[in-house]
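Progress note, sequence design subtask.
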């Protein structure tokens, strides 16, 4: 991999919730800043749920009304809503699957976000590196959003903004690929494909964020009993086609 530009993000904790939500929030931020989605992931989730609710309500109203004019109007509205749902469905499904996949990683050492046609030839490359192995047991409560998670996520995004993320972007939809470094024994074929090593073939300078604890008592050594290798998440996110006028 090419030599990267590094920035350190200091924190007092690197628990499972902080690591998970920082990864997911940075992923959504990169999609938005690189014009791959029209609004934030949170706003898109609200819109997506709203479209489903509207569609169900129209279906219920259709079942209790016999007038032809009423049914034609509702069918037209339902077709429009269904097109909106279909446009967002793959993206929202991939985003949900990535969240599920990240929760399965036993130790988060590094995460790579590659934006481009393939992970080997990306237009943009971002690396999140954590200063010690952080266990993420598969218990839903461990991933509840906390104040510490919010604080770390905000620090990471402020750092990305200060480095000019999104100021130079590639026009048109791209794919966002996620790679994680985990023990070689990690076996989740439904969500991850082992890559052993990862090397970028395109001359792109990655931006690396190093998350480091200020509290030395919390730092623990990363596991050494097993080799750490790269795994590529099977759930790549393809950006939505949007009408954006390039800056002159």
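Output:
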């Amino acid at each position: 991999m090419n030599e990267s530009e590094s920035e350190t993000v200091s924190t007092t904790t690197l628990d499972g919730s902080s690591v998970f939500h920082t990864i997911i929030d940075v992923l959504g931020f990169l999609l938005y800043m690189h014009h791959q989605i029209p609004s934030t992931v949170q706003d898109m989730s609200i819109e997506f749920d709203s479209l489903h609710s509207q569609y169900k309500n129209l279906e219920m109203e259709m079942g209790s009304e016999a007038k032809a004019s009423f049914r034609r109007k509702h069918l037209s509205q339902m077709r429009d809503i269904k097109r909106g749902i279909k446009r967002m469905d793959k993206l929202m499904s991939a985003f949900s699957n990535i969240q599920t996949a990240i929760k399965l990683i036993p130790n988060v050492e590094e995460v790579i976000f590659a934006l481009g046609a393939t992970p080997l030839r990306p237009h943009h490359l971002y690396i999140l590196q954590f200063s010690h192995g952080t266990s993420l047991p598969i218990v839903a409560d461990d991933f509840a959003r906390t104040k510490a998670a919010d604080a770390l996520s905000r620090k990471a995004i402020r750092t990305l903004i200060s480095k000019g993320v999104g100021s130079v972007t590639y026009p048109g939809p791209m794919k966002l690929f996620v790679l994680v470094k985990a023990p070689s024994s990690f076996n989740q074929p439904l969500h991850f494909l082992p890559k052993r090593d990862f090397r970028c073939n395109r001359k792109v300078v990655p931006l690396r964020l190093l998350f480091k604890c200020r509290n030395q008592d919390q730092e623990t050594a990363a596991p050494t009993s097993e080799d750490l290798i790269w795994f590529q998440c099977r759930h790549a996110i393809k950006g939505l086609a949007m009408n954006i006028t390039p800056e002159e």
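The longest strand covers residues 122-130. Work on this subtask will continue into the next period as scheduled.
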